[in-house]
Amino acid sequence: MALRIVLADDHAAYRAYLRSLLEAQADIVVAAEVADGASAVRAALDHKPDIVLLDLVMPGLDGIEATRQIVSHRTSTKVLALSLHSDAELVEAMSVAGASGYVLKTDPLPDLLRALREVSAGRPYFSTSLGGTDERSATSRAP
């Protein structure tokens, strides 16, 4: 069964590029693309994807608040943050909001694909480009 993704990023060209990369994978389908946080919340509820791949900085509702709202609906949809920002405060804010992981837009495609598959399987994933990643992942996997 294919992994269903909602892409949420305010840059149309980047979304199109990312969609083409993801849909080249046999096990990934992009269910919807949106350009802002409020639309990401609606798309998560309407399309019931496995994962919302969510940028942090978007017009209107930012990624942190969109994550809170998506998670508050208690669906099986998970949120994977996708950002240019590697600030520890943002990573922590997304984790507290309920994101299952955090990847950087500068990470290579195999890392993004691994993140999607790990999060889909119920395991947290934090980019190896973030400081303290191994410790955070190990801690979040503890029973």
What can you tell me about this protein's structure?
- The chain has helices spanning 12-23, 37-47, 63-72, 88-97, 109-120, 133-141, and strands at residues 3-8, 28-34, 51-55, 78-83, 101-104, 125-126.
- By secondary structure, it is an alpha/beta fold.
- The protein has a single domain (3-141), classed as 3-Layer(aba) Sandwich (Rossmann fold), CATH 3.40.50.2300.
- Helix 3 (63-72) packs parallel to helix 4.
- It is globular.
Give the CA-based shape.
Answer: globular
- Please state the CA-atom Rg, rounded to the nearest Å: 14 Å
- Category from helices, strands and their pairing: alpha/beta
> Fraction of residues in helices?
40-55%
Physical arrangement of strands within the biggest beta sheet: 2-1-3-4-5-6
> Separation of termini?
28 Å
The CATH architecture designation is 3-Layer(aba) Sandwich
Look at the structure and name the CATH superfamily.
Response regulator
Helix and strand sequence: EHEHEHEHEHEH
Count helical runs: 6
CATH topology: Rossmann fold
Could you tell me the mean pLDDT?
A: 89
Into how many domains do the coordinates divide? Answer: 1
The fraction of residues assigned to DSSP E strands is: 15-25%
Report the sheet with the most strands, covering strand number, pairing sense and barrel closure.
Answer: 6 strands, parallel
Counting DSSP E segments of at least 2 residues, the number of strands comes to 6
The top-level CATH class is Alpha Beta
Low-confidence stretches: 133-143
Please give the structural blueprint.
Blueprint lengths: L2 E6 L3 H12 L4 E7 L2 H11 L3 E5 L7 H10 L5 E6 L4 H10 L3 E4 L4 H12 L4 E2 L6 H9 L2
Parallel strand pairs: 1-2, 1-3, 3-4, 4-5, 5-6
